[in-house]
Amino acid sequence: MPLDTAAVRWAGLPENRFTFLNRTLHLPAPDWNRRYESHLWNYQLHYFEFAVWCARVWVERGEPRYWQACRALIESWLAQARPGQSDGWDAYPTSLRIVNWIYAYCLLAEHEAGTEFQTRWRTSIYQQLDFLSRHLEHHLLANHLLKNAKALVLGGLFFAHDRQGQHWLETGQQLLWREFDEQVLPDGGHYERAPMYHAQTLGDWLECFALLQAFGSLAKDKAEIAQRLRAMAEFLEAASYTDNTLALFNDSANTAETRPQPLLATAARVCGYAAGSAPTAFPQTGYFVWQSSDAREKLIVDAGPPSVAYNTAHAHCDLLSYELRFDGKPFIVDTGVHGYGGDPFRAYCRATRAHNTVQFDQREQSELWGTFRLARRAEVLAAAAQGDATAWQFRGAYRPYYDRNLTHQRLIQRRGTGEWVVTDTAQGSVVHEAESFIHIHPAIQVRQGHADGFVIECQTDTRSILIEPFGDVTSVSLTRGSTIPATRRAQQQAQGWYFPTFGSAQPNPVICFRYRPPMGTAFGYRIRTVT
């Protein structure tokens, strides 16, 4: 990453000002055993991601000021942070801190050569690796265990002269490639089905693959890994946009480490990925894509299972939801994710109404509880797409958790005229009310127009668009996030919030068409540009 890209974020380090998740705290003397702001914010503090940037500023620009501040923070962490008391000793932040400290250590090996600090710092990295090797997150698996494995691999390469280091390298590689086989689906998608975690895990595997080759330590078939990494890169290309942002399905937000373009550029160098080679259907992951030849108009549908069966931590009720872009800019958006434990928007962002899909009789698609829990879940029945450069259609269907006789079927069509038509039906059970939600990007001007009040007029900076419902429409509402969902009652209300990054809540217009659909009767809406 260019140094200037992160300069604004870390500019306050010399004064101990830390910005994570769009929230800045001034901590003149950080207490490394205390939890500030939130569990996730505290994790970010303990990652010491800034250590690599500070080291690079000294090495590449000859400016030691930031490193001196970082070194003081490392000193205080070494003196204070205690296992069992500090969030920093959880296996996940330990894994990220180990990697960041190893990179910073290597960058400054000559600058800090022979200092007492360097010895204590290296000793701590060794102790943290030893701790991590005995606290691997086998109970969480998924991206957590991958971070553990990556730390062991890098730690094993760093302490290659040491017998314990060789053991960490061997253990790390076994986990790394076992989880590669487990977590990467045949179509290249990551099994948590969240573009952000897909990007993050791709970055981790690319990094380890490149390092292990460079050190001559790769313990798996190079060609096979490269081929599957290319498939992962193709999925990332399909699930992202030309403005370097991600589709925000499930727990996804745009972060510095998951920006698509740097990852795809890295994939091109490391595994031979070729830009523009991505397919448009990912049947195992459940993603389907249509885009114009210049990629300025693009639709992505999420029609996969909520997540892998044994880890649903980052799943949302977003089956058959989609994102749509015109002129290279977002028009219909997914809500994304604002935060995790204790976050006031957590329940909302996972709910059915936070996505561009249909909710029947105010029941969720899957049974949500807690911060990361999902009990009974929706079952995907079908998903497929076909078409060409101008006309395309997607068909999908699922059963909600609460009624195995009820089937929601959705047809999304792009017609040769450029019109989009979304058609839904409910089959198998009586439905009293269907609410179809459409989340519009905050930058779009939206109002209810026309005499019947059911048609919605949208104005982007380049075009006027009408969204016209059809079927047995009973009402339409247009809301925008304006109430912090601090109470349970508020959380149950339809809201309009867009979370493009962690900690950023932008009120956005949300359309809700309400229908009273007889069984098997089609309802839905058209999206057409009028000027």
DSSP strand count: 23
- Mean pLDDT over the full residue set: 95
Strand content: 15-25%
Q: Which word captures the global form?
A: elongated
Give the biggest sheet: 8 strands, antiparallel
Weakly predicted, low-confidence segments: none
How many helices? The count is 13
The rounded distance between the terminal residues' Cα atoms is 41 Å
Widest beta sheet: strand line-up: 11-12-13-14-23-18-17-16
Which structural class matches the secondary elements?
Answer: alpha+beta
Helix content estimate = 25-40%
Q: Report the radius of gyration as a whole number of Å.
A: 24 Å
Write the layout of secondary structure elements.
Blueprint: H1 3-10, E1 17-20, E2 23-26, H2 39-47, H3 50-61, H4 65-80, H5 91-107, H6 116-133, H7 142-158, H8 163-183, H9 195-214, H10 222-238, H11 260-271, E3 281-282, E4 287-291, E5 298-302, E6 321-326, E7 329-332, H12 346-350, E8 358-360, E9 368-369, E10 373-374, E11 379-387, E12 392-399, E13 407-414, E14 420-427, E15 434-439, E16 445-449, E17 455-459, E18 464-470, E19 473-480, H13 488-492, E20 497-498, E21 506-507, E22 509-515, E23 523-529
Antiparallel strand pairs: 1-2, 3-4, 4-5, 5-6, 6-7, 8-15, 9-10, 11-12, 12-13, 13-14, 14-23, 15-22, 16-17, 17-18, 18-23, 19-22, 20-21
Helix pairs in contact: 1-3, 2-5, 3-4, 3-5, 5-6, 5-7, 6-7, 7-8, 7-9, 9-10, 9-11, 10-11
